[in-house]
Amino acid sequence: MEHIVEMLNVSKSFPGILANDDISIQLRKGEIHALLGENGAGKSTLMSILFGLYKADSGVIKVRGKEVQIHNPNVANALGIGMVHQHFKLVHNFTVTENIILGIEPVNGPFLKTADASRRIKELSVRYGLDVDPDARIEDISVGMQQRVEILKMLYRDAEVLIFDEPTAVLTPQEIVDLMKIMRNLKAEDKSIILITHKLKEIKAIAERCTVIRRGKVVGTVDVAGTSTQVMAEMMVGRQVSFKVDKRDREPGEVVLDIKDLCVQSSRKTQAVKNFSLQVRRGEILGLAGVDGNGQTELVEALTGLRKAESGSILFMGKDMTHASIRGRIRGGMAHIPEDRQKRGLVLDYTMEENFILEIYGLEPFSKRGFINRKAIRAHAAKLMDAFDVRAGQGTLSIARTMSGGNQQKAIVGREISHDPELLIAVQPTRGLDVGSIEYIHKRLVEQRDGGKAVLLVSLELDEVMDLSDRIAVISHGELTGMKLPAETNEGEIGLMMAGVASGGHA
Questions:
Q1: Is the Cβ–Cβ distance between 459 and 289 less than 8 Å?
Q2: Which residues are CB-contacts of 398 (< 8 A; sequence separation ≥ 6)?
Q3: At how many degrees (to 10) do helices 114-127 and 143-156 cross?
Q4: How far is CA 270 from CA 273, 278, 302, in A?
Q5: Do strands 367-368 and 311-316 pair parallel, antiparallel, or not at all (unpaired)?
Q6: Full-model pTM
């Protein structure tokens, strides 16, 4: 069996952290090989070395049997290696074609030959079932489409080895199904794929072999068909993992959040939320299910004060908060885990200790008479990082940008829960997390509920909504299409309600 890529005994360390410890991985031609590991296990670092973004401290890389030195991504491209990053690298006001040819523009004298490029992109798009319009602007297309542009960028450069870094973290359930289809098309054309992920369901659906990394070391490589998800999960986190959420039945208390006939406009001035009414009570997790882009974002922004409500009202703890300031809502006992951790959740160039006090820096003990108390801030950050298992090379002084996505997420969840809120609005709280961290965050959300707090869970992961919620509300095109009790429904019915095909009763 010929190997198209071999990484042998690769090690890489950063200040304070050994990211890759003597790792070996071999990719066969025409296979889909999964790279599985917890957040911060070293998966992205290893692939960044293969793509020329980092240089290994030691070890050998062979491509098609020959030893190579990959100094930068251009060398990787020339060797036929491409990578789709977790956070896409696209210029938003350029067209699809302009993004794809960036850096290798075909010219005729002083003129750009975009028509030829556009034709070739169209051909590739049809051949691999990507369905991309070469003339569309990036800012006008969905996240799933943007990802396909990244795939086309690799194919346009004749990549044979395609690295996907957490490709489904940003996709809707339907887009994930489409991506799997695209990957099968790529495999059928003899492309070799490395899939970095921690979603076991996807590995079972698409990969043939899986290499598991834990804390920078290889635990083993297994054949996926003959290995259960339970075994892979245990290899990944080093202990038994429960896939079921443990929660007792309880009677919800008084209404904490009362939304009445709320209307909210989108940034494009269209009606994103229409006459939406909903109540969330103490001691319950209310799950809001919906396909991405159906008004959830605008609803949450109106609740948290990031967007103005056009009409209707938001009552929080009996007070009218429809037009209150963001700070007023936070001080009133509202906390928010935002859907985009990098845009809304963290200041990426701040340290962790600064990020942990973003909303409370004006309060004692963190400041007094206008002076910041560094010691109190550091102690607070250390306590939260310990409690929420946030791993970072430089401890509380780590810059947020340098941490893995999963550790960034755990930090935000820790910060918001530490405010001891009456209402926790959790949007995609486990996006991009591994099974161990998901289990942990689910426990913390249930703890909030059991402590008599109200939780509004907004998630695109249907199984998460089904497992965690006491009641499920479904949103479609900005309207409430029904309420269900998890025990009285199933994923199929909720899926139809999300699509706006069926309407549900009221729970």
A1: yes
A2: 351, 352, 392
A3: 110
A4: 9, 21, 15
A5: unpaired
A6: 0.72
DSSP for residue 432:
T
Please choose, from the candidates 429, 35, 364, 472, the residue with its C-alpha nearest in 3D space to the C-alpha of residue 222. 35
DSSP-derived letter for residue 95 is: B
| Distance between CA atoms of residues 272 and 293, nearest Å | 9
Q: In this structure, which amino acid lies at residue 32?
A: I
Would you write out the chain's pLDDT as a tens digit for each of its 507 residues? 689 999 999 999 988 788 999 999 999 999 999 999 987 788 989 999 999 999 999 999 999 999 999 999 999 999 999 999 877 788 988 999 999 988 878 777 777 778 888 999 999 999 988 989 999 998 888 888 899 999 999 999 999 999 999 888 767 677 888 899 999 999 999 999 999 988 888 899 999 999 999 989 999 999 999 999 889 989 998 888 777 777 888 889 999 999 999 999 998 888 999 999 999 999 999 999 988 788 999 999 999 999 999 999 999 999 999 999 999 999 999 999 998 888 888 999 999 999 999 988 888 899 988 898 999 999 999 999 998 889 887 889 999 988 877 889 899 999 999 999 999 999 999 877 778 888 888 999 999 999 999 999 999 888 889 999 999 999 999 999 999 999 898 888 888 888 777 666 555
445, two tokens: 């959300």
